[in-house]
Write a structure and sequence with these properties.
This protein is mainly alpha-helical. It has a domain of 126 residues. Helix content is 71%, strand content 0%. It contains 13 helices and no strands. Helix 3 packs antiparallel against helix 4. The protein starts with a helix and ends in a 27-residue tail after the last helix.
């Protein structure tokens, strides 16, 4: 069995991108079980990472961190530096948002350093933007990272970077661009998925909350709990440090 083609664990699938989180979580849980069954350590690492990302979107911080740490252990074992880069970034962002500044800074610094070594500009940019939000962070360095790598970022990375730059600098132009990029992403999917994308995906939700606060627009309807076993959802506080 080909782990990549049969398991599909290296892509969370359309469910996560559309905010259909229970569907995405179930897919990744099945992928994790199957990757272990066939003994594919690389596919197991991808499944752990993607499951950690979905759990973070659901507000399950402890479960997300557990999966990300498990991913890093496998990455170290098999020498998968590219996936480790992505995982350090997600773990650092998760910890920093929860107020664990020391561990968050450590993970983000690791993501930044490793991203430079292996040549992943999107992770380097986002890590430097996240670091700028921590006490003593350098907003100018974040802006320099974005300016250097902007043309090499994908649409989702660019949207996240713009929002982080708004938080770091207070420059509304970054928020306006983040909102424009969000609107652009919504325009590319059927309207019936807009609510789940805006309420269930953390970055989109935070962009809308910030935009509504800036413009006085109405808030979108709150997300609903899909699984009573999940940890309580809470929107991470959105602050600007600039």
């Amino acid at each position: 069995m080909d782990g990549i083609s049969e398991l599909g664990v290296r892509d969370q699938g359309i469910g996560r991108r559309l905010g259909r989180l229970p569907e995405a979580r179930e897919h990744m849980e099945r992928s994790l079980a199957l990757s272990r069954e066939i003994g594919s350590r690389e596919d197991e690492a991808y499944a752990q990472h993607n499951l950690g990302e979905v759990l973070r979107e659901e507000g399950a911080r402890a479960g997300s961190e557990e999966r990300l740490l498990a991913c890093l252990l496998v990455c170290e074992e098999i020498g998968h530096r590219q996936l480790a880069v992505q995982t350090h970034l997600l773990l650092g962002s998760l910890r920093a948002a929860a107020g664990d500044e020391e561990s968050g800074r450590e993970s983000l610094a690791a993501a930044c350093s490793l991203a430079k070594d292996v040549g992943i500009p999107g992770v380097e940019t986002l890590a430097r933007c996240e670091l700028a939000l921590l006490p003593g962070g350098d907003a100018k360095d974040a802006l320099a990272a974005f300016t250097e790598h902007d043309e090499r970022l994908d649409a989702e990375e660019r949207r996240q970077a713009r929002f982080l730059l708004w938080r770091a600098t207070g420059d509304r132009a970054h928020l306006e661009e983040a909102k424009r990029l969000l609107d652009e992403s919504l325009a590319n999917v059927p309207v019936e998925y807009h609510e789940s994308m805006l309420t269930n995906l953390r970055v989109n939700r935070e962009i809308m909350a910030a935009w509504n606060a800036e413009t006085g627009a109405a808030e979108p309807p709150p997300a609903t709990r899909d699984d009573p076993a999940d940890e309580p959802r809470g929107t991470e506080s959105i602050t600007r440090v600039g």
